[in-house]
Amino acid sequence: MICPNETEWVLYASGELPRPRRQELESHLAGCDACRREAAGLARGLTALATLEREPAVRPQVMETLRTRAREAATARSTVVSIWHRYRWVAAAAAAVVLAVGLAAVMPKVGQPAVTPWVTDVHLQEELAEITASVEMLEACSNGKAPDVASDASDDQTYEELEFFFDQLRAEVDA
Amino acid sequence: MTTGPGDSIDLETLLVTFSPRVYGLLFRLVGRADVAEDLMQETMLRAFRSLGTYHPEGKFRAWVFRIAVNLARDWIRRQPREPSVSLDDGEDAPVAASLRTVAPPDSPMGRREGAKRVEAAIARLSAADREVLLLRYYGDLAFKDIARTTREPLGTVLARAHRALKKLGELLPEDKP
After folding, report:
1. Which of B111, B149, B110 lies closest to B29, judged by CA?
2. Are B55 and B65 within one domain?
């Protein structure tokens, strides 16, 4: 039999080998000095280790502190669980409302035509430009000044006509 | 220590069953009683808090000792580095020889001296080798469970155990044929 490797001797010395393999190694030990020394050295290591106190006493104060902290942790946990059980329907309802509002804000409205933002509406922009020009003209007229935009209007356009034009535009926008 | 997977366990059982051995392990890992006490408490509290949610993949005991080892590793990692002396570096021969001494091993004094020599030798092992040896001793874990606890291959764990046990074995006299 070839000498087992060192890690197998660790399992042997620690009693973790299955019985058939253990018996094979024991047979091998009977005729192999090197492996006998190897196994004996590991067994001495385990014996040396066993001189350490395995369950050293923990100071009573430390244990008492630990018990207190554990009880506090248990109380805190049971409090949280109790609060959750009491208010879980409220929390669930609140979560549902938040979810619904969020979805309504994010989801496109079904069955409704898409609304074009007014600032990008070409027609509205044209109308606003005309309104602005008309207002400036009206202000100029009311101040007794000759309108600068007169060249844009017909020569015979009077103050009343401009005012009428302005009213029309305003009515269209309102509509 | 018989607590295995699936056993119901309450606070007092947890404390009585595990505290001394977890403390022993931590003391050997970090080398300071006050730190070992703190880490033992933290280990127990974490284990206790998680009792309700713990689903054993391995042994419950291995799980508790894994918490302890991780806490010790974190603490050691936070410490300023010091030049380490290891029995692995071959420069320890005089030290090991000086540890093999005096009183008869069966006398009370001999036992105390023997334990001190072992403690000194363990303290001089590399951290990883020491961890494996102590998990075996204090945790009473099989090597496959130690491998799971330290997240190392079984072969690596066994090699560490072999190295550490050989070093400790050198502290005791060989049997006469």
Report:
1. B149
2. yes
Count structural domains, chain A. 3
Indicate whether A124 and A103 sit together in one domain.
no
Which is more confidently placed, B112 or A45? Answer: A45
With an 8 Å Cβ cutoff, are B168 and A73 in contact?
Answer: no
Domain containing B133 equals: 85-177
Average pLDDT, rounded, for chain A: 76
Q: What is the largest CA-CA distance in chain A?
A: 132
Give the domain-ending residue among B53, B83, B113: B83
Q: Give pLDDT tens digits for A100-111.
A: 887 777 766 555
- Distance, in angstroms, between B80 CA and closest chain A CA? 27
Contact A40 B175 (CB under 8 A): yes
**Count of domains forming chain B:** 2
Helix axes B11-30, B33-49, angle to 10 degrees: 140
Choose, out of B165, B171, B172, the residue to mutate when testing the contact with A (most A CBs < 10 Å): B165
Q: Is the ipTM of this complex over 0.85?
A: no
Is the CB of A48 less than 8 angstroms away from the CB of B121? yes
pLDDT, mean over chain B? 79
Instruction: Please name the member of B41, B166, B170 whose beta carbon is closest to the beta carbon of A66.
Output: B41
CB proximity A14 to B under 8 Å: yes
A69 CB neighbours in chain B (<8 A) are 41, 45
Which of B29, B60, B83 lies at the terminal end of a domain, its last residue?
B83
> Does B64 have pLDDT greater than 70?
yes
- Please indicate, yes or no, whether residues A168 and A135 belong to a single structural domain of this protein: yes
* Number of other residues whose CB lies within 10 A of the CB of residue B166: 18
